[in-house]
TrEMBL record:
Residues 1-139 form the Vps41 beta-propeller domain. This is Putative light protein. The gene is plp. Transmembrane segments: none annotated. GO terms for biological process: cellular response to starvation; endosomal vesicle fusion; macroautophagy; protein targeting to vacuole. It comes from the Eukaryota.
Length: 319
């Protein structure tokens, strides 16, 4: 069945078998009218696309199109027709791009062909009516909350955050922060700590309380070093000194050269210097004690000597 639909006053959408054609009605130029005996208007095919479906209906949705169709290939197991699909696609720039595709749960679909379905539209409300011999399904575009919920449930967090940022950072039920925290937990569970640190800075910005709530997540998995370059360090945005001390402790125990560098770079007003000096001295005492109990010249002892020099240099820098 050929499907014809006016998507605008001079735009005609044609769907026939598996092919979509978008045509524009345009007025001929004076030169064309003078040189030939032709009508004043003509139908100019602008876009032509072939799809993977036998087309049951077409409809406009803003600058996109909605297609109701049946997959060309039968179900390989049952040998019968597959469920009909409702697809939203973009067709600009001479490309046909599927944006979303939903299979419809229609009773008796196995026995139907594309001509057994019909798509009707209420343009004023962006409502689409899918009619079959046994069912009528009403479809409408998702609102922002629906879209963010769907994206989040399908682990498409980055897209969900982008959608929220485009509408000012929040909707009725979601915010960049709430979705961002879920995304952060997802990245942490996948051990993607560098990406999680970048995301943390993106959603926290200048929110001191949020920083202090999220940084412990990195502490739990001993990955404070990943977040260290992103934490606020200016006096007017400084966090609780405990946060900086936790980061320094991790560097002291896991990365002595990094510990020295961070002490050189950070403003000592961010943390309690006396507390850090005490921790460094404890480390030195432990290393010296271990040296006295072994005379083995191995890589571990060489590394220990380097650590002692770094610790001494750090104490000097702090003082």
């Amino acid at each position: 069945r050929c499907n014809l639909l006016w998507s605008a006053s001079k735009t005609l959408m044609i769907g026939w078998v598996d092919t979509i054609r978008i045509c524009v009605i345009r007025k001929r130029s004076q030169i064309e009218l003078q040189t030939r005996d032709v009508t004043e208007y003509l139908v100019d095919p602008v876009y032509t696309f072939q799809t993977e479906y036998f087309i049951s209906g077409l409809g406009p949705l803003d600058d996109q199109l909605v297609l109701l169709g049946v997959p060309k290939v039968c179900d390989p197991e049952a040998g019968k027709a597959q469920r009909p699909v409702l697809m939203v696609a973009d067709y600009k720039d001479c490309e046909f791009c599927e944006l979303s595709t939903d299979s419809l749960n229609i009773r008796g679909y196995e026995e139907y062909s594309c001509n057994d379905y019909y798509l009707d539209i209420l343009l004023e409300e962006n409502r689409f009516f899918i009619v079959s011999p046994k069912d009528i399904v009403i479809a409408s575009p998702l609102d922002i909350d629906d879209k963010v919920k769907w994206l989040t449930e399908n682990s498409r967090f980055e897209k969900a955050i982008t959608v929220l940022e485009e509408v000012g950072g929040k909707s009725s039920h979601h915010t960049v922060v709430t979705v961002g925290v879920k995304y952060l937990d997802h990245l942490m569970s996948e051990h993607l700590y560098e990406e999680a640190a970048i995301l943390c800075a993106r959603i926290c910005k200048n929110d001191k309380a949020l920083w202090e709530n999220l940084i412990p997540k990195f502490n739990e998995v001993k990955q404070l070093r990943a977040i260290s370059i992103y934490v606020p360090k200016t006096p007017d945005q400084a966090l609780n000194s405990d946060i900086y001390e936790l980061i320094l402790y991790e560097y002291l125990n896991k990365d002595p050269p990094g510990f020295l560098k961070i002490v050189q770079d950070w403003n000592p007003a961010l943390y309690k210097t006396g507390v850090i000096v005490n921790e460094v001295l404890k480390q030195l005492t432990f290393l010296l004690s271990r040296d006295q109990n072994t005379n083995l010249e191995n890589d571990e002892n060489i590394h220990t000597k380097s650590d002692k020099n770094i610790d001494l240099e750090t104490v000097k820098n702090i003082y």
